[in-house]
Amino acid sequence: MYKVDLPVEQSTEKAVERRRSAESARKARIFNTRLRVMGLDTDVLNQQVQEKKHQQNIERQRDKAFDKLREYHDVALLQLDTDDREKRAALHTDLVQYWATQQRVEDSRDADLKCGLQGAFRIPIPERELGPASMQMFQGEGIGEEQVRREQMKKTERDLQAQREDNARRHMGNKHREMLVSRELVHQDLRGVQQAALEEECQNAIRIAYNDYNRALAAEQAEKLMEQHRREERENLAEMRHTLTSDMMTECAEAAERKVGGGKPHHVLTDRWRGMSPEELRAIHEERETQCRERQRKRDAEKIHDAAWDHQLLKQSREAEEEEARAAELRRQTRIQMDQYNMQLAREQQAHQEYLDKKLYTNKPTRDYFYQFNTSSR
Predict the structure, then answer these.
(1) Do 278 and 272 touch, CB atoms closer than 8 A?
(2) CA dist 103 to 11, 88, 107, 149, Å?
(3) Chain centroid, CA 44 distance in Å
(4) Domain for residue 89, yes or no?
(5) Which of 3, 241, 255, 351 is the most buried (most CB within 10 A)?
(6) Residue 135, SS3?
(7) Would residue 171 count as lying in a domain?
(8) pTM given for the model
(9) Last residue of a domain, which of 101, 136, 163?
């Protein structure tokens, strides 16, 4: 058979190229110092970026909504201001029209005073003395002026009369009220005087009752004091009689050694004791000498015991000092041996280090030796 050059399948080439690209990407990731040392989680970073963008979008939408709400409020406030101004203008126009139609100056009660100077008025000067250029009243003017003035004077007089009558009625009413108030004050004063008189009578009755009660209490207290004084006198007489007839005054010697109630058989009554007998004094002296000899014997025994204890303590302290000296000598010998051993170890380590530096590690690696590593991702 003959050798035939068959074409390489295109899928195999694509697979090889894909593996080469993956290897290049793997090398880029592995030999990148920043990624290898620090490390980055791209998925988490992308998620954080998306969340931040979403948050910013929400904030922008919220700001737009707030802007629209502010614009709506501004338009509403402007419309309210415009309506208010229009209402004020319409009200002012209606008020001016009302003044012009319903409250004219010439329709008021004192129109003759305010508007009387607008027309001509009569001057009691003959026309022949004034001349044609000084005429101030013309034909048809001032008709009924005197009648109007008389009516106004009558009306003013009626108003003044009505005011005087009203003031008189008001004055009479005030006088009537003042009279009623003064009458009520008089009645109150009378009731106050009667009440004060009744209270004074009650106070007198209470005072009399208190006085009677206090006199009765004083009499009762005096009777109690007299009874107490009589009882004290009886008790004093009884005590004096008992004292005169007691064993203390009669100097009875057996009274001091008498058994009273539940006391001890040889109990001595101090208020009746007249002193000890010679036999009792002799017994006391003998007992005291016996106690002194016993106390001296105890002191001698304690001295002997203390001396023995001090000797034992001295012996123990000497033994402790000797033991401490032996321990110090042992520590010194141990330290000397440890120093010698450390010096021997130091000499051996120095010799080993010289062997490593001068005989074993004489062939130092070059730069090419280190460049042969980390050339592939596998």
Answers:
(1) no
(2) 111, 20, 7, 22
(3) 48
(4) yes
(5) 255
(6) coil
(7) no
(8) 0.23
(9) 101
